[in-house]
Amino acid sequence: MPQNQIKEMKQKTEKTIEHLKGTLLGIRTGRAHPALVEEIKVDYFGTMTPIKQMGTVTVPEPRQLVITPWDKSALKAIEKAIQSSSLGVTPKTDGESVRVVLPELTKERRQELSKLVNKYAEEARVAIRNVRRDVLEAFKKMEKAGEISEDEHKKLQKEVQDHVDGAIKKVDALAQEKEKEILND
Q1: pTM higher than 0.85 for the full model?
Q2: Alpha-carbon distance 41 to 70, whole Å?
Q3: What is the pLDDT of residue 108?
Q4: DSSP class of 65
Q5: CA–CA dist 3, 147 (Å, integer)
Q6: Would you call 61 helix, strand, or coil by DSSP?
Q7: Residue 161 half-sphere exposure toward CB, CA atoms < 13 A
Q8: Fewer Cβ within 10 Å of end Cβ, the chain: N or C?
Q9: Distance CA 5, CA 122 (A)
Q10: Domains in the chain: ranges and CATH
Q11: CB–CB of 64/84 below 8 Å?
């Protein structure tokens, strides 16, 4: 029974780390990356649809994205969604596709993005700690119910803490890497 709790905890922490990776991909550095626009939601016939489900996103140049929708009638909606997003860019439509040119980042914008990276990393750390708290509470209940011994409880606590420490180190490494990418680009 305790092993199920630990397995579930490991899955939840991995999901948290994967979510953080995806979120960090969406933060703009100086280079174009399809993840910058893929998750932007477009009002497509009354349904909020991510851009990645509406067409292809390519990177023809280091600072340019080209979105080619499968349905050309969606061009204006895609352009409008990108304009109103937090990217802070103005897309251009050429009748076939939407072009997004990414300007150089200013020092102030780089610092803002760095703070955003730290905010997302802290949210991930908090989520991981919450998972740890839930698992440790479950172990306490098991000990009180006589399902596990006090020694086993202490051993499980150490295993949980070791896993959480490793997960938080991964979060810190991801955040540092992204911050370095933003500030040095």
Answers
A1: no
A2: 16
A3: 83
A4: E
A5: 13
A6: strand
A7: 6
A8: N
A9: 24
A10: 2-25+106-184 (1.10.132.20), 35-101 (3.30.1360.40)
A11: no
The pair of three-digit structure tokens given for residue 175, joined into one six-digit string: 């955040």
Tens digit of each residue's pLDDT, the chain (185 residues): 788 888 999 999 999 999 988 888 777 666 777 877 777 888 888 888 888 888 898 888 888 889 999 988 888 888 888 888 777 778 888 888 999 888 777 788 788 888 888 999 999 999 999 999 999 999 899 889 888 888 998 999 999 999 999 999 999 999 999 888 887 76
Amino acid making up residue 174: L
> Tokens 């709790």 map to which residue?
5
Look up tokens 């340019």; give the residue.
Answer: 64
Residue 90 is encoded by which pair of tokens? 């103005």
Which pLDDT does position 29 carry in this prediction? 67
β-pairing, 41-44 vs 92-93, is unpaired
All residues at 6 or more sequence positions from 91 whose CB lies less than 8 Å from its CB, including other chains: 67, 78, 79, 82, 83, 98, 99, 100
Residue 67 identity: I
CA-wise closest residue to 174 among 19, 7, 38: 19
Amino acid at site 144: K
What is the enclosing helix (H) or strand (E) of 16?
helix 2-25
